[in-house]
Amino acid sequence: MAKQTLQTVITLSGQVDNSFGVLGQRIMALGSQIDGLSQKVIEFGKESIEQYVRYDDVMREVQALGEYDGKTIQTLNEYNRSIAQTSKYTMEQAGQAEVMMAQLGLNMEQTRTLMPTVMNLATAANIELADSLDYLYYTLNALGEPMSYADTLADQMSKSAAISAADIDTLGQSMQRLGSGAKFFAGGSEEILAILGGISQFGSDMQGRDAGTQLRNFMLTLLAPTKSKDELISSLRVTEEEWAEFESYMDDAGINVTDTAAAMNELGLSVYDSATGELKPAIQIIGEMDAALSTLSEAEKNKMLGNLFGKRTTTTALNLIESLDTIIQYQEEIEKGSEGYTQSMADTMEGGLGGSLRKFNAALDAFKVTVGERLAPQVENITDSLTGFINSLTNMDDDKLDALISGCLLYTSDAADEL
Question: How confident is the model over 128-139, as pLDDT tens digits?
């Protein structure tokens, strides 16, 4: 009726006047726009509630695993909001990383220390936060370094990836696979990454997890004749599982500890410094082995390497010797030019339109979580009331429930007849 009235053409003083009709059309158009806007607001509210629920569920898991109180979780919420407002990572993604950190037993301070480095390394390498966290945490743990060393380690990994055939992802896999074997390298993370970068030129067999396995076995083979199994496990913190895997490898590769010891004696090769009793840097060991083998003929050299390493690790030893100059160069470059490298790579990766859009989406996500958080109490009250109502229906006695169902069926039947 309203539509019909507003569209009526009115005659005033003998003249046709359609002003009311035009006004009516404009009001109806405005109404349609308001309806559309209202629908969008409703949809945004629904999305905000859903986003907040997902984030809240994640943070409740953080709270349970970390045994945090409400004040600590509120602090983390504000921290995650700042992450979403300044990076490409959403509050939910930050929360999921915090779940993993809580599972690893990291406290609030360690989490806040490690998070920026985890994000930068993940951005620089274009990998998931979970992988970045794994690479950093397990390598730091294997090296015996504190969480505060994470920036240095990440920068060294980024620089190694920039100057070698390896990338951050494969370097991380190698370090993770090396495990407690990182303790075999007196030169620390710089030395390990320089070696991994150097041998990466020989292809996929010398990259990723395979490279980590090969390096560990190379060093363990040289260490095995020097002490008893128990002494090595204790002094180098080798796990029983890792040693069992190494013994299986020795059997498959045909390595005999007695032959290895005899070959080392013949070459005058020692992995420990005679003056200090400390383990020598791996690069020094490789250099001394190269020098000792250089006096032999090719046939004698191959036989000696076979006695030292069996049929598998001989290839690794040859690759290490061949790339020794490159490894030394890489170590110098990592030592002198890695500081700030991860941040620089991350800034480059996120510097274009794609990075701008990802940051916008993260900021929008944070806004939705904030809106959802404000709406949550009202929605929770409504859902609790509805739950109570549904439960009262479920617990209704049989006669009343039958009557209710019969009434609903009768109403449905009448409605269908009218159609």
Answer: 999 999 999 999
Distance in angstroms (rounded) separating the CA atoms of residues 55 and 77: 10
Q: Provide the pLDDT for residue 6.
A: 43
* Burial class of residue 365, CB neighbours in 10 A (0-12, 13-18, 19+): buried
Residue 172 in tokens: 């991380």
At residue 239, what are phi and psi to the nearest 5 degrees? -80, 155
Nearest-5° angle of CA 320, CA 322, CA 328?
70
pLDDT band, residue 26 (cuts 50/70/90): low
Task: Report the 10 Å Cβ neighbour count for 121.
Answer: 29
Q: Which residue has the higher pLDDT, 247 or 199?
A: 199
pTM of structure: 0.81
CB 202 within 8 A of CB 321: no
- Phi, psi dihedral angles at 271 (to 5 degrees): -95, -10
- Tell me the average pLDDT across 137-156: 95
Q: Are 58 and 95 in contact (CB under 8 A)?
A: yes
Query: Can you read off the two tokens belonging to residue 183?
Result: 């303790």
Is the CB of residue 103 less than 8 Å from the CB of residue 377?
no
Cβ 209 vs Cβ 177: under 8 Å: yes
Q: Which residue has the tokens 């370097």?
A: 171
d(CA 385, CA 382): 5
